[in-house]
């Protein structure tokens, strides 16, 4: 009985534990369900917000495209239409001018014959030949003027050259004359210097002769004075006076001959 009561108590405890575990699991399952529901609600809100943003972006893009189209139509379309209109108008005018020219050619072919065309061609050729002749004459006149100017310039150049050569020749003649005068002056100076040197040599030679003769005379005078001093005083005085007079006259003659 004790064992049975113990088993019963353990069984009651196990049941109680199992019920607690089941209650805990049920509570956790409810919490998980609530969390999953909250997550699904959050994801739904995010998806709704994303879709709303996408719709806003699509609407803004559409509005921008419509606005740009309207701006282009307002700013560019009139100019493009006007340009297209002018292009068509110009093309139409060209086609009209071609048609009118073709019509004129046709009417001209109907109005004028081959003889008329030949006469017109002859007149055009005559006119063009006259134009060419006038141009040729103008060119020939220009050539004549150029040749005349060339001859005039050649004559002027010859005149300038002749004057320059004459000027140069005169300058050279002046230089030659100056050089000749300088050479003559140097030759005369050299001759004068040689003459002066010769005169100096002659004077030196003559002075040497005079000095030698003077020395001899003085020696002779001295010797005579000595001889006179040995004789009577009066005779010595007379001889000394005569020698002095003779020496003075000889000195005067020598000075005159030297001059």
Task: Provide structural commentary.
The chain has 259 residues and is mainly alpha-helical. Helix content is 97%, strand content 0%. The chain is built from 4 helices and no strands. Helix 3 runs antiparallel to helix 4 (233-258). The chain is elongated, with a radius of gyration of 78 Å. It starts with a helix and ends with a helix.
SSE topology sketch:
Blueprint: H1 2-75, H2 77-111, H3 114-230, H4 233-258
Q: What proportion strand?
A: under 5%
Query: What is the straight-line distance between the termini?
Result: 205 Å
Detail the poorly predicted runs.
none
Number of strands: 0
Largest sheet: none
Helix tally equals: 4
Structural class: mainly alpha
Q: What is the overall pLDDT average?
A: 81
Characteristic key phrases:
single chain, 259 residues, mainly alpha, elongated
In short:
The chain is mainly α and 259 residues long. Helix content is 97%, strand content 0%.
């Amino acid at each position: 009985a004790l064992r049975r009561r113990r088993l019963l108590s353990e069984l009651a405890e196990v049941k109680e534990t199992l019920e607690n575990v089941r209650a805990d699991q049920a509570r956790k399952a409810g919490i998980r369900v609530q969390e999953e529901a909250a997550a699904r609600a959050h994801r739904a809100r995010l998806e709704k917000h994303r879709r709303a943003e996408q719709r806003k972006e699509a609407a803004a893009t559409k509005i921008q495209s419509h606005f740009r189209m309207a701006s282009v139509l307002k700013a560019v379309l009139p100019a493009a239409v006007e340009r297209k209109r002018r292009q068509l108008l110009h093309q139409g005018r060209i086609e009209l001018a071609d048609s009118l020219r073709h019509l004129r050619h046709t009417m001209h072919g109907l109005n004028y014959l081959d003889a008329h065309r030949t006469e017109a061609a002859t007149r055009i050729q005559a006119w063009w030949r006259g134009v060419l002749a006038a141009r040729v004459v103008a060119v020939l006149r220009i050539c004549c003027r150029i040749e005349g100017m060339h001859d005039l310039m050649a004559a002027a150049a010859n005149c300038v050259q002749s004057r320059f050569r004459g000027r140069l020749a005169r300058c050279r003649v002046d230089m030659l004359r100056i050089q000749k005068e300088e050479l003559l002056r140097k030759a005369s100076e050299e001759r004068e210097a040689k003459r002066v040197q010769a005169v100096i040599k002659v004077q030196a030679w003559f002075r040497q002769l005079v000095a030698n003769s003077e020395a001899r005379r003085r020696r002779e005078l001295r010797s005579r004075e000595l001889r006179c001093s040995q004789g009577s005083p009066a005779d010595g005085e007379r001889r000394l006076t005569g020698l002095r007079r003779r020496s003075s006259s000889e000195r005067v003659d020598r000075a005159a001959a030297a001059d």
